[in-house]
Amino acid sequence: QVQLVESGGGLVQAGGSLRLSCAASGSIVSIAVMGWYRQAPGKQRELVAFITSGGSTNYADSVKGRFTITISRDNAKNTVYLQMNSLKPEDTAVYYCNAKNRVLRDYWGQGTQVTVSS
Q1: How distant is the alpha carbon of residue 75 from its chain centre?
Q2: What integer pLDDT is reported at residue 75 of this predicted model?
Q3: Which of 20, 61, 73, 86 is least enclosed, having the fewest CB within 10 Å?
Q4: What is the C-alpha to C-alpha distance for residues 11 and 27, in angstroms, rounded to an integer?
Q5: Who's near 115: CB < 8 A, 6+ residues apart?
Q6: Who has greater pLDDT, 27 or 11?
Q7: What letters, b where the CB count within 10 A reaches 16 and e where it falls short, cover 26-38?
Q8: Are 49 and 37 in contact (CB under 8 A)?
Q9: Which residues is 57 bridged to in the sheet?
Q10: pLDDT tens across 63-90, in order?
Q11: Secondary structure (DSSP) of 18-67
């Protein structure tokens, strides 16, 4: 089992920055990929960015050049960060941390609201 705890959402003006954090604990050695998804009202959940255990990253086209995903590791937990710069109103959504283990089972955080005002 993997537990995910998110923090860092909030309200920011357009053009501003926020950093989201997600601490993973439990069976962290089984984690193959960690990432962030988001879901805006009335829309489907979409992938924002992910990072593999080998350090490869991938971003949605809509956030390339503005968002950066990184990870830090210690013996007890992994923490994945999403640095979000040049935020736009269309980035407003609930952001969910995700972890996939080596058999691609999904684990989800509780979600954190990001609101970007124009």
Answers
A1: 21
A2: 76
A3: 61
A4: 33
A5: 10, 11, 12, 92
A6: 11
A7: eebebbebbbbbb
A8: no
A9: 51
A10: 999 999 999 988 788 999 999 999 999 9
A11: EEEEEEEEESGGGEEEEEEEEE-TTS--EEEEEEETT--EEE-GGGTTTE
